[in-house]
Amino acid sequence: MKLSKVQIESYRQQGFLLLENVVGVDLLVELRAAIARFVEQSRQVAASNKVYDLDPSHSAALPRVRRLKDPHLRDEVFQRLASSDTIVDPVCQLLGGTVRFDHSKLNFKHPHSAAEIAWHQDWAFYPHTNDDILAVGVMIEDCRLESGPLRVIPGSHRGPVYDHHHNGTFTGAIAEGDLGNLPDSAIDLVAPAGSISIHHVRTLHASTNCSADTTRPLLLFSYAAVDAFPVFAAYDLDEYDARILRGQAVRQGRMEALPIRLHLPQKPGADSIYDNQAVRKNGG
User: Fold this and answer.
1) SS3 assignment, position 65
2) Residue 15: DSSP 8-state
3) 165-197 pLDDT, tens digit each
4) Which of 3, 22, 28, 224 shows the greatest Cβ crowding within 10 Å of its Cβ?
């Protein structure tokens, strides 16, 4: 699909887009079947590992997966969607003509569980030489207000890069007092199953807990322009270039004058945004 000039300009100004009914019904059926298989398999897992981030209340009798890590590596249906023209064409327009796939995750919110995500910017987790980076959220089920949808603050990507540390430790969350009344302008991205959201890497976003009878699966794909190179990270170069979906490999990054804070130090053993943000919630 192609974006209109109006949609592209809206993304530039607001830092997000919401596009309804993008993913077809047949593919949604495949995605749901794959997700159900992984949730069922999680019954055999007692603790979080390289595949699953599990809620503390998870058990074989009542599986509660908070996150399926790297779903594009777990089942080909996720990889197929991540590299499809349906997703990559609009991403390519927003990133200036080149696209490198970065990572994926599948987040869940179980009813009445503590799965709230505090305000943050993705930029805090993986700064690059420029900020032509975005995330696409695929709504596997209808997403309503009571589902705990993604919330964004329009225009916040054009503002400051916030400190995501607490008492010297990276928490992946911004102190509530630092945002002033900005959350008052937040927009809840509610839409039917098959819709997608797109948000800029510096857009402030969060989500509340789920109070509905749903697990609110949200599939997230992250992409970057080919000339956006990670800061303070190392990759296998061949594997890194193999992720290019549009454009050619380059060896000189495009540098922009952007503020960067290292996402270090982190709490030992922290393996997800839930672990990181718990440091601030628990007063550590």
Assistant:
1) strand
2) S
3) 998 899 999 998 999 999 999 999 999 999 999
4) 224
